[in-house]
Amino acid sequence: MNAYLNTENIARSKGGVEYHPLRPFLPENAKVLFLGSFPPQRKRWCMDFYYPNFINDHWRIEGQIFFGDKNHFVDLEAKRFKINEIIAFCQEKGLAFFDTSTAIRRLQDNASDKFLEVVEPTDIPALLSQLPYLRAIVTTGEKATETICASLGIATIPKVNTCVEVLNMNGNALLLYRLPSSSRAYPLSFDKKVEAYRQMFNQIF
Questions:
Q1: Window from 81-85, 169-173, 180-184 with minimum mean pLDDT
Q2: For the stretch 7-38, what's the b/e string if a residue is b when 16 or more beta carbons lie within 10 angstroms of its beta carbon?
Q3: Quick check: helix, strand or coil at residue 25?
Q4: SS3 66
Q5: Cα(100)–Cα(123) distance, rounded to whole angstroms?
Q6: Residues 6+ apart with CB under 8 A from 190
Q7: What's the pTM?
């Protein structure tokens, strides 16, 4: 069983309420924290980790940026992502992952953010307190961005491809980036998504 799978929460997902099925991935050296809205239904997973849907391009974007190969983290034959390589890479690079909701209801039988009802938002300050070297938070969807802005008291929701400065619990400045969604449903070419993510990484690393 993967260490990041929260089997206790999977068992609690009853009565229409789903509890987050993954544990927060918080390397101590993390400089960037990706916060999505909530994982897709497990029937869409190809691995027990973040961005598990094989047709989501998050890991292809990172493969293209850091290795010049969009399939660096892809097992094409098995149609899976290479979870061990992904985890090792994120630990080395300092990339953290969780979501802005710990419990949700799906109003329709799909993975669309606009049909997610937030039942329990994530305690964002508690996450940030565990990441002393954090420099940026990244959201890639409207639902996640709205939820974190509400949590941190940010009045103006950043537009796609922009960032705002926020303060964490220790009074240190962080950048909140809103980047294009890596979902293929988001109407932007793969190359333009790569460039947007690359600009963020260049500013942080």
A1: 169-173
A2: eebeeeeeeeebbbbbebbebeebbbbbbbbb
A3: strand
A4: helix
A5: 8
A6: 57, 60, 61, 70
A7: 0.92
